Amino acid sequence: MTRDNPPGSIWSRLRLWLMRLLGWNQQPSADHEEDIGILREEKEKLSEEDVEKIREENEKLRSELQKCKESFANFRRRSDKKSQKTEEESRNSEENIGKLREENEELRSELQKCKESFANFRRRSPDKKRQKTEEESGNSEENIGKLREGNEELRLQLQKCKESFANFRRRMGNQATAEIGSHGEAFKDINNPCREDELKKSYDKLKRNVWAKYVQEMNKIQDKKGRIHQKEKAERIIKEVFDKAAENMKESRQSFESLFKINHTDEPDMSKKRFYYMEMAIQKLQMMILLEDNCTFYTDVKHIIPNEPDQLSAGSLTPICNLACMCYKQGCLMALHHPPLTLAWNEKEIRNPFPPIAEETQV
Question: What is the Cα–Cα distance from 50 to 62, expressed in whole angstroms?
Fold first, then answer.
């Protein structure tokens, strides 16, 4: 007997295993005996450790097989639920489709009714609309005629109002201008640069800023006695200049009163009208003084400043002369105000030669 498979090969082992599985009790042949001998030898060669590893691998395979079975069972349960849900959704979708079809039919019927109603309206509207338009046109012509008549009446009334307002402005113009511009007992003209608020601001600027610049000029003098002398000289000149300005403007106001024949024994209306005209003239004088340059007032104050050369021939003013001119200009504007803004010399500060404005002069 020839051997197609060598002893100990995989085919020999497989054949032997099948014979045992089928329970063949035949006597093994010589070839089989050889294979059995080989298997026994290989079995003897296997150690206990190898057997234990094979068992562990078998256990792992069993556990993995169990997990696969559980996963497959879960998958089948999920697939059954999903298929059931899909069937329910399909049934619901069929119901929704049926409802949508019914609604579509209702909309079509309503659309058809709307088309029929619109067609009936178009057939009925031309005659009625034409008749209504003719009636409205007749009424509108009558209304237009009435509106034109009313418009003419309003034009005449407007013309009369304009003429009355122009006469009123001509009558009250001079009186209102005088009241507003000079003393402002009833009003304050915000466009008047010589009103009380602006005069107080300019005086405060003279007191703070201009005096501080002059002190800086005095500090340039090296001699301490010379600085003290210049400061005392400046304080004396400031007071004399303001007094001189108040005196001169008082004479000017008296001249205006004489020119306009202000007499308190006259009738009240006539005296008041003349007083307003005089106040307007004083306002013009204030504006002229305000717009003049400081050098213009040098001739009025040069006799107050001793031991100073002629500044006009020099072409520029020294600090003390410039300060005196600015004080004279401010004093004139304050003296021409009604009532005049006077200075409280007895309340003068020690470090500043400019006293505060007296409280009783505030309007």
Answer: 18
Residue 199's CB: how many other CB atoms inside 10 A? Answer: 20
How far apart CA 132 and CA 15 sit, in angstroms, is 116
Is the pTM value of this prediction over 0.70? no
Closest CA to 254 of 195, 183, 335: 335
Biggest CA–CA distance in the chain, Å, is 176
Residue-wise pLDDT tens digits, 196-254: 999 999 999 999 999 999 999 888 887 888 888 888 889 999 999 999 999 999 999 99
CA dihedral 225, 231, 237, 238 (to 10 degrees): -170
Q: Are 330 and 286 in contact (CB under 8 A)?
A: no
How confident is the model over 288-306, as pLDDT tens digits?
A: 999 988 878 888 888 888 7
Backbone torsion region of residue 28, taken as left when φ is above 0, otherwise alpha when ψ lies between -120 and 50, otherwise beta:
beta
**319-336 and 224-259 helices, crossing angle to 10°:** 30
What's the CA gap between 77 and 178, in Å, rounded? 107
Give dist(CA 358, CA 360) in Å, integer: 6
The H-assigned helical ranges of 23-47 are 30-45
**CB 358 within 8 Å of CB 343:** yes
